[in-house]
Amino acid sequence: MNSNPLQPPNPLLETPLSLITGATYPLKALKLFYNNPPLRGYVIFPVIVNIIVGIFLYFGLVLPGLNEIDKIVLNLGTQIDHWVANLPQWLHYLDILASVLGWLLRVGLVTGLLLIIGFLLLQFGGILGAPWYGQLSEKVEELQTGKPAVLPPQTLTSSVQDIGRAILYELKKLGLQILIGVPLLLLNFIPGFGTLLFTIGGIALASTIVCLDFLDSPMERRRFRFRDKLNMIVRTFPSSVSFALVCFGLVVIPFLNLLSIPVCVAAGTMFFCDRILLNKVS
């Protein structure tokens, strides 16, 4: 276990330009794939895995989810209609407001459903495609640094330890989501401002998890602790924020996320090499 991880730039030294630079890493990864055709071979199988997982997720969750959303919106509309019917005639214009609220609710719920499916695709696709993503990350690191990628010892004992670390990593991510997600969920019961905080906090939490996943390959090869991985995100602020948000957006867009996950894995390794190994601040 590495108790002295590499020290990236201090956030006070990060320039405002890095906020923009962090968001460009997926584009840089696409350029890297274009200029280095052998890298594409590491993407084929993960994409196939993503397609298979995506088929199960979208067909298994989208249709039932849309049906439930229809029921929720219909029940809300019925309740509002009943409430408006008992109001004076001059207040019946509130029917229009009910229609608008129903439409907004539908948009919000459908968006939330797609976000959840995209997030699940990342988690399951990432686990199943881990062997290929690991090799892809190694090759990207070699191209970025001009040196062989840092590799952990390859022994039976280390392989067993790797499995344990992977399980522990997923459990710690789950714990982080519960620790922060439950209070956020409670905030959602506060009308107006609470819902806004829940939305912002939820996106921030999901983006942090996404950022962890895409930066994990090079950090795991160096046996960073979970807290050190989180610290890397904090210390590379604000570039890590824009990187996380862009990657989060890419992995939750239906069908695009089937292809964007490998790109973001490569982008995460490039981000790590540039902003942590090479200490670039712009």
UniProtKB/TrEMBL annotation:
GO biological process: cysteine biosynthetic process; sulfate assimilation
GO cellular component, one term: plasma membrane
Pfam families: EI24 (PF07264)
Coiled-coil intervals: none
Membrane disposition: Multi-pass membrane protein
One Gene Ontology MF term: high-affinity sulfate:proton symporter activity
TM region(s), chain numbering: 42-61, 96-122, 196-215, 236-253, 259-278
Localisation: Membrane
InterPro entries per the UniProt record, alphabetical: CysZ-like (IPR050480), CysZ/EI24 (IPR059112)
Keyword Coiled coil (UniProt): no
Keywords: Amino-acid biosynthesis, Cell inner membrane, Cell membrane, Membrane, Sulfate transport, Transmembrane, Transmembrane helix, Transport
Presence of keyword Signal: no
Protein name: Sulfate transporter CysZ
